[in-house]
Amino acid sequence: MQLLWPIAIITFKEGIRNRSIYGISLLALLMLLANFVISGMVAQEVSKVAVDIALSAISFSGLLLVLFVGINLMAKDLDRKTIYMVMAKPISRSQYLIGKYIGVILLITVCMSLLSFFAAVSLLLIKFGHPTFFQRFSWLMVGLSFFFTTLMLILVAALSFLFSSFTSTSFLTFILTIISYIIGMSLNDVKALVEAPQSVGITVSPVTVKIVQAAYYVFPNLSLFDIKLQAAHGLPVPVTYVIGIVAYTMVYSVIVMTMACLIFRKKEFP
Amino acid sequence: MISFASVSKEFKEGVAAKRVRALSNLTLEIERGQIFGFLGPNGAGKSTTIKILLNLIFPDSGRATIRGMDVCDKNVRRFVGYLPENPYFYDYLTAEELLWFGGKSSGMAKSAIVERSNLLLDKVQLLESRKRPLRTYSKGMVQRAGLALALIHNPDVVILDEPMSGLDPIGRKMVGDIILELKKEGKTVFFSSHILSDVERLCDRVGIIVGGQLRLTGCVAEILKGGDTLEDAFMREVHIAGLKEVR
Ligand SMILES: Nc1ncnc2c1ncn2[C@@H]1O[C@H](COP(=O)(O)OP(=O)(O)OP(=O)(O)O)[C@@H](O)[C@H]1O
Ligand SMILES: [Mg+2]
Fold first, then answer.
1. CA of A57: how far to CAs of A28, A51, A109, A119, A140, in Å?
2. Is residue B102, in this structure, part of any structural domain at all?
């Protein structure tokens, strides 16, 4: 732990000072600003629309954060050989990777807390303007949704670490991470579709079903983290579900990071 | 102190590309307290040798040890300082934070880090720019910061890959002075360089490597005794090796 900390700190500092962060934050603020305009126009179900937009804005900005800052932190080390100075210290390759990951988790947590705060303020103002539509609105659910989004990003970041442990360019890591994100997001729907194709009147070959089922167990099921609907409608989420999501994130990240470490241990930096 | 026992390394670039034998059967011994200059034309295998010493790449065969410990043991690097060739550090960190990282990850106490980092930054003439992000540094300034980083934990073995490259005459003299100072403190220094006059002035022993093969090792005094300059010796070895082109 004593050795992980210095790496985590410099990773965090390097990330938080990155100019892309300003761009991403600005984009998030613009989306939240647009929320005022849009919720002023819909004039019905304002709370649902406003919550949905605010949460989507946050998760989208968070994804940009992981893709453009998170991946870069790792990739630049390999591309530009900054890793030489780290590996010249009494630090093993696994410790390096884990320290780096802790730094990225720190970065995601801090940025998401900040963005969530802005989103909450925007919701508060909209609520103030349209009090009648916010009867079933629950702060708890909105907060939980922010939390789940953060967990999802931490999981996606772990995947990006796995990819960068075996790819040779950061571009490939970037592409693989996006693909995994898209698959992870749609997996639930696709699985439901191919397992009961008659409901929409299509036929699916058994091979496809097998492939989708295999993918279901390999890729993270990211739609589990999406509780925008519940948050928008003020529906409750059971405590066991929350515990399950936290456990899922932890177990999945640990497995992925272990694999990344095993690959990274054999890696050369010529 | 530093020892190579028939170390070989081959690079395979791409799937079908031909292999490059970057090092063949390197056997070399460097005593404690020695300043060893590593010479050779471009692509001779100097950086490869140094990267093996830092466990950045693994030898195909043979073994490299420092103080009797295999270099793949991470604890070796507690007493090793390293300056990569063309070093590149984090964009948004300052020199001060870079040295903090170097000290902290070597297990130094906070007060010791501050004291030593001020001393070293003063020595490499970066004390005034220590709070600026490294992104704003010139090439030579980055090189200087790298040198301070290599020395922050007061290592017994200092490995420098072309420490003078990119430095102005004052900077070159500064590096020379630092190396001589390290010698006075009884440290072992292993450095590669293309600047023969510096090597002649600083080193106890030199090794000349051409095409991955160590052609000559010897005391500087002995090589110079026959009336040869170091340049003569260098040219002769490259000529005998029959090197036509940089690989
Ligand atoms: N990543 C790599 N992939 C393939 N070949 C490589 C790689 N790195 C080095 N080589 C080859 O290994 C040989 C030795 O390279 P090395 O970098 O050790 O040379 P050098 O002596 O440090 O040269 P210079 O004086 O230019 O720094 C060269 O022929 C080079 O082409
Ligand atoms: Mg070199």
1. 6, 10, 16, 8, 18
2. no
Whether residue B56 and residue A87 make contact (CB cut-off 8 A), yes or no, is yes
Give the 3-state secondary structure of residue B158: strand
Amino acid at B74: K
Closest to A87 (Cβ–Cβ): which among B54, B93, B107? B54
Here the ipTM equals 0.89
Closest Cα in chain A to B74 = A90
A13, A84, A270 member nearest B11 (Cβ): A270
Number of domains chain B contains: 1
Query: What is the span of the domain harbouring residue A261?
Result: 4-265
The chain A residue lying nearest B9, using CA atoms, is A270
User: Could you list the residue range(s) of the whole structural domain that residue B236 is in?
Assistant: 2-85+157-246
Take atom 18 of ligand 1 and give the residue whose Cα is closest. B45
How does pLDDT run along chain B (247 residues), one tens digit per residue?
899 999 999 888 766 677 888 899 999 999 999 999 999 999 899 999 999 999 999 999 999 999 999 999 999 999 999 999 988 899 999 999 999 999 999 989 999 999 999 999 999 999 999 999 999 999 999 999 999 999 999 999 999 999 998 889 999 999 999 999 999 999 999 999 998 888 888 999 999 998 888 888 888 888 887 777 888 888 888 888 776 555 5
B150 found inside a domain:
no
pLDDT score recorded for residue B245: 56
Q: Which ligand is nearest to the CA of B49?
A: 1
Chain A residues within 8 Å of chain B (Cβ atoms): 2-3, 5-7, 9-10, 13-14, 17-18, 80-82, 84-92, 268-270
Q: Is B107 an 8 Å CB contact of chain A? A: yes
Strand order across the B157-161 sheet: B80-83, B157-161, B188-192, B35-39, B205-210, B213-219
Residue A67 falls inside a structural domain: yes
- Looking at residue A138, its pLDDT comes to 81
Lateral strand order in the sheet of B2-12 = B19-30, B2-12, B61-66, B69-70
Threshold 0.80, pTM exceeds = yes
Provide the token pair at B118. 């001020």
Instruction: Please check whether residue B49 lies inside any domain of the structure.
Output: yes
Nearest Cα neighbor of A100 from B158, B105, B29, B115 is: B105
| CB-based contact B171:B152 (threshold 8 Å) | no
Closest ligand 1 atom to A270 CA: 1
Number of structural domains, chain A?
1
Q: How far is the CA of B147 from the centre of ligand 2 (A)?
A: 16
Predicted confidence (pLDDT) per residue in A153-178, tens digit? 999 999 999 999 998 888 999 999 99
Query: What CATH number has the domain bearing residue B167?
Result: 3.40.50.300
Task: Report if residue A46 sits inside a domain.
Answer: yes
B114 within domain boundaries: no
For an interface test with A, give the residue of B15, B90, B117, B162 to mutate (most A CBs within 10 A): B90
A270 located within any domain: no
